[in-house]
């Protein structure tokens, strides 16, 4: 009898574990790809995972060999952004982009996510993707480094770095991040539409994460309840046999 109970407990626990999704992480919005050798927008979706603290800082490090000569940030109310550069050959390259909340009250709170937009280029022509190691700082002083690169396909690291996907294309933009050609108003309209898409995509991702978390919690409660019921029934049968 007790072997049956043990088996049911293991089965219930396994189903609950399988219902829990991978922990949310900092990622590049999947709504767009950048042209090799060109300029474009990168949107980092940053969820706050802490139950007690807000996200108050995001730092992105540009890997060595990725020589971005231009980088601009989209203003975020209550936040400051700094683009750091370093010497590279005969010129300079962007080395880090730092976003910082002016006040902890302006941070990304528990259950929320922030979108941090970078317009930069030129991106490399000889690779298909560029990882962007990122550090997420919380209001309680803790920090999480999202800097691990996927080594084996199908195996996700615990703290994956967000990745920019690069594709072959002829659009090199205007040197300021716009890949759309035409009048300034057309470029602005394109950027606005892209921002709306990014917000919609990020919102959808957040909703999906909430649904998964709710389903996982429900599965765990049902697993515990069913296991307890089986134990009670078996104990009653044991007493009756005695």
Automatic annotation (TrEMBL):
Which keywords are on file for this protein? Membrane, Signal, Transmembrane, Transmembrane helix
UniProt region (Disordered), positions on chain: 168-200
**What is the name listed in the Swiss-Prot or TrEMBL entry for this protein?**
YcnI family protein
Gene3D superfamilies (UniProt xref) = Uncharacterised protein YcnI-like PF07987, DUF1775
Q: Where is the composition biased (Low complexity)?
A: 177-192
Please give the InterPro entries that the UniProt record associates with this protein.
YcnI-copper_dom (IPR012533), YcnI-like_sf (IPR038507)
Provide the YncI copper-binding domain boundaries.
25-166
Residues that span the membrane, as ranges: 210-234
Signal peptide position in this chain?
A: 1-19
In its UniProt entry, the species of origin is given as: Rhodococcus zopfii
């Amino acid at each position: 009898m007790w072997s049956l109970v043990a088996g049911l407990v293991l089965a219930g626990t396994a189903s609950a574990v399988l219902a829990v999704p991978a922990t949310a992480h900092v990622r590049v919005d999947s709504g767009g790809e950048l042209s090799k050798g060109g300029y474009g927008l990168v949107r980092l979706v940053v969820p706050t995972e802490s139950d007690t603290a807000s996200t108050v800082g995001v730092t992105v490090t540009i890997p060595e060999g990725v020589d971005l000569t231009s980088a601009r940030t989209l203003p975020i109310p209550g936040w400051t952004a700094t683009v750091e550069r370093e010497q590279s050959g005969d010129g300079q390259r962007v080395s880090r982009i730092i976003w910082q909340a002016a006040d902890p009250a302006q941070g990304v709170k528990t259950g929320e996510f922030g979108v941090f937009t970078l317009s930069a280029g030129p991106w490399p022509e000889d690779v298909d993707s560029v990882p962007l190691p990122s550090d997420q700082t919380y209001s309680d002083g803790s920090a999480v480094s999202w800097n691990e690169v996927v080594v084996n396909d199908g195996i996700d690291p615990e703290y994956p770095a967000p990745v920019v996907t690069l594709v072959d294309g002829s659009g090199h933009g205007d040197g300021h991040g716009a890949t759309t050609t035409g009048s300034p108003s057309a470029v602005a309209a394109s950027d606005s539409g892209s921002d709306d898409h990014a917000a919609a995509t990020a919102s959808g991702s957040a909703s999906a994460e909430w649904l998964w978390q709710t389903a996982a919690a429900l599965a765990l409660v049902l697993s515990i309840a069913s296991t307890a019921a089986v134990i009670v029934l078996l104990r009653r049968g044991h007493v009756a046999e005695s």
